[in-house]
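Something for you to look into today, if you have time. Could you write out one complete protein record for me, on any chain you like? Leave the record below and I will have a look.
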Amino acid sequence: MIGKAASAISVAVVVAIVLGLRQVGYEEAGRRIAPLGWAAPLVAMAVLSALVVVPGVPSDLFGVVNGSLFGPVMGALVNWVGALVGSTICYAIGHRLGEHPWVAGLIARLPQQMRWSVGSLPFLLFVRYLPAIGGTTVNYTAGAIRVPIARFLWTAAIGTLPPAWFWATVGYASRG
């Protein structure tokens, strides 16, 4: 019962963050986060994590905001940690969904080679770079097909680092 309540609260928080950002926009969200002092990077990480969890919501744009707020190094760190936390949440959700009979049935019907391909290093490292859907696809699918968590985490750590740095640098350069 507590697990379901915690899940419901978590979903509500993610939905509230995403809807709030849609209402005020990413730049305004950055202006509201900036005065939070030492808590600003933590809040920015939480927001980025929430954006990563929701398929189809552009989390990279918030990475630009983080670069603008915190500079290229701290912005990259905020982006990287936020992306890793969000990716891990997606993995956990995918893992849980993989237990559902309907999803488990779909996975069981996949050819073994395709299941292996999804768990392969090239898939885990490079598919996340596909625009709009790459990271989401990797994160949820890896959990659903039971890629070992250690492999997922180290590939996610390596795979999210270049975009974390890139978007922070773009944000820092756009400060004018």
